[in-house]
Specification:
heterodimer, A: mainly alpha, about 75% helix, about 0% strand, flat, B: mainly alpha, about 70% helix
Chain lengths: ~325, ~290
């Protein structure tokens, strides 16, 4: 009896769904292109993850799936290889270190900029500063890295002129291991500080002017108002942005590193994404690099889910 | 906060704040000006060590060289093609999808949203995507620069949120008059959604103009190189790959040539940017309201 009633339930639901599909076929048709590209290109690519568990060998005249089926199953061999090899641990360490440096130094910069912009009295001056600081965000890392290589060139760069001015020997910032990560931090701030300040400026405009008025009546000066009104009002935004930023800790910035690094700084600059590209696309070690990519994706997804849960438990709207 | 007398320390703070902002702007804008200036300098001027703002000796031969190069024009064409086709198609498909998921009566809405959300946070990664493109026969095919990035989950959610915030009485009365969803979307909803459509279009436009990674991975044919890839070859890899028509450039010095190429690739963005700025900012707000 229970079985049959459930059957009717399922059949009834299917019927209702079918009727809804017919009624709203236009909506479904609108959905189709977006859904199809997602299914083909995003989910289609996920099948390729099977390469991580086999010793992928391409045979001429066979399709990708036939190749995967025909390759020897090796289980977690490539994951182990990545996590135990000297290169792998170094790449992992670089990724986490560069991400950490960026969280420590690049994350607070736009908050500071937003607070300082908020204190400018001249609206026109503020607009000019905003326009200039937002600009690098729209220029690609290819071009920014090119510009940087010219400006910091050990032969003709401004860095040489500055070194000459102080009578010191010029430093080749781009090719020096001890400066390279610092350079990544500084250039990241260069490109993103203005853009990332927008969200904090928006939060600042939402502050009730009554709070400032009350603070003035209480005799609070500029600094006191910043410390006791502005910053506390920014805290919720700061917390959610920090949580979201931590969720992407496995992304150390492929475009930036890939266009700025070179062989002399590889040992401190190679991150997971550049390593995958070099070993996978250039050296065609498909199985090994697919395993690294899968490792990164899983950790990344875990971090996003974890940080999203933390954000929600703090009463914020999460990412999903 | 005028009308309140400032203490001395507050005035000092103002002075510091304005000064700091000026220094910040100079530091951020200088590298770009430096490179542009070198692109328009004579050989001797381009290798002069020091600050470059306005060339002491103007020389447009590098720019002329770049503009007379067939490789640059072809790369320009490829970049413009992917930017135009990619932006139009992406915006259209994102709007259609965003509108569909904004309706609570969309059949299987939860499943469909789940499909989008999962793929936003978990991806097959670089290598499987590369193998897929190869299996689909999209290597050296222009569409491999447009189709894989056609829809971004984030953009669709921004669209959806905007559509949901529009009062629904207009749509409902049109529905009663017998208009179908296509008519409602294109005649009623989109005309009042220009801001969000412009924002998504701008984002996709900048993305496509600056994109090079797909071009690097999926194209071996030099006829399909985009501008960013040529710049990368010239200023990052220091090769003339894809720029053979410039390799007789012995008369022009390499520094000016780099400067001129960067200039040519960046100027369009710099020209659009002042007008587009407000849409970008609006977009950040739209995305931040609710994910």
């Amino acid at each position: 009896m229970v079985q049959s009633s459930r059957n009717i339930g399922v059949r009834g639901r299917a019927k209702r769904l079918l009727r809804a599909c017919v009624k709203h076929h236009n909506l479904l048709l609108m959905m189709l292109p977006a859904l199809a590209t997602f299914l083909i290109f995003r989910y289609g690519a996920m099948f390729g993850l099977a390469m991580a568990f086999v010793d992928y060998k391409a045979k001429i005249g066979q399709s990708f799936l036939q190749n995967v089926m025909g390759s020897e199953w090796v289980g977690l061999k490539y994951f182990e290889q990545f996590l135990t090899s000297l290169n792998g641990t170094q790449v992992l360490r670089n990724t986490l270190l560069i991400s950490l440096y960026k969280i420590v130094f690049c994350f607070p910069a736009p908050i500071l900029l937003a607070i300082m912009l908020n204190e400018l009295q001249s609206i026109r001056f503020k607009k000019v500063v905003q326009t200039v600081t937002y600009l690098p965000h729209f220029i690609s890392w290819v071009v920014l890295a090119g510009i940087l290589r010219m400006v910091l060139s050990p032969d003709y760069g401004v860095s040489v002129a500055i070194a000459n001015l102080f009578g010191t020997t010029p430093v080749n910032f781009i090719g020096n291991k001890s400066y390279f990560r610092g350079l990544l931090v500084v250039t990241e701030i260069w490109r993103e500080v203005g853009w990332n300040s927008i969200i904090y400026l928006a939060a600042l405009t939402g502050i009730d002017p009554g709070l400032y008025e009350a603070a003035i009546i209480d005799g609070a000066g500029r600094f006191k108002r910043i410390i006791h009104v502005t910053i506390p009002c920014l805290v919720p935004t700061i917390v959610i942005m920090l949580i979201l930023r931590t969720g992407t800790i496995m992304d150390a910035g492929f475009d930036q590193v890939y266009n700025m690094y070179n062989n002399s700084v590889r040992s401190v600059a190679e991150i997971i994404d550049t390593y995958i590209y070099e070993k996978g696309i250039i050296d065609t070690q498909y199985s090994y690099t697919t395993a690294i990519g899968l490792f990164k994706s899983v950790i990344g997804l875990g971090m996003v889910l974890l940080t999203d849960r933390i954000a929600k438990s703090l009463g914020q709207q999460g990412v999903a | 906060m005028t009308g309140i007398r400032k203490t001395r320390s507050e005035r000092a703070f103002d002075l510091f704040n304005y000064g700091f902002m000026i220094v910040l702007c100079v530091v951020m804008a200088y590298p770009i000006i430096h490179v542009f200036s070198i692109g328009m300098s004579s050989y001797a001027e381009s290798i002069r060590i020091g600050v470059h703002i306005i060339p002491r000796e103007w020389d447009f031969s590098a720019l002329e060289k770049v503009f007379s190069s067939t490789d640059i024009w072809r790369a320009y064409y490829n970049t413009i093609w992917r930017t135009a086709v990619g932006t139009v198609l992406s915006t259209l498909v994102t709007a259609l999808g965003g509108y569909a998921v904004s309706k609570s009566y969309l059949p299987m809405r939860r499943t469909i949203m789940g499909i989008f959300l999962f793929a936003m946070y978990f991806s097959g990664g670089t290598i499987p995507t590369f193998m897929l493109i190869r299996s689909l026969g999209l290597m050296n095919n222009r569409w491999s620069m447009v189709l894989p990035s056609l829809v971004w989950g984030f953009n669709m959610i921004v669209m959806r949120n905007f559509f949901q915030s529009i009062p629904s009485d207009m749509e409902e009365s049109a529905q009663i008059d017998g208009a179908n969803e296509w008519v409602i979307l294109f005649r009623i909803v989109l005309p009042v959604s220009k801001a969000v459509v412009a924002t998504i279009a701008m984002w996709m436009c900048v993305y496509h103009w600056n994109a090079y990674m797909d071009n690097l991975m999926y194209f071996t044919d030099k006829n399909h190189y985009v501008l960013q890839r040529i710049i990368r070859n010239l200023v990052v890899e220091n090769t003339m790959s894809g720029l053979e028509s410039l390799s007789d450039a012995s008369t022009t010095n390499p520094e000016s040539l780099k400067g001129a190429t960067i200039m040519v690739a960046t100027l369009p963005i710099l020209m659009v940017y002042p007008f587009a700025q407000k849409y970008f900012i609006k977009g950040v707000m739209l995305g931040a309201v609710k994910g």
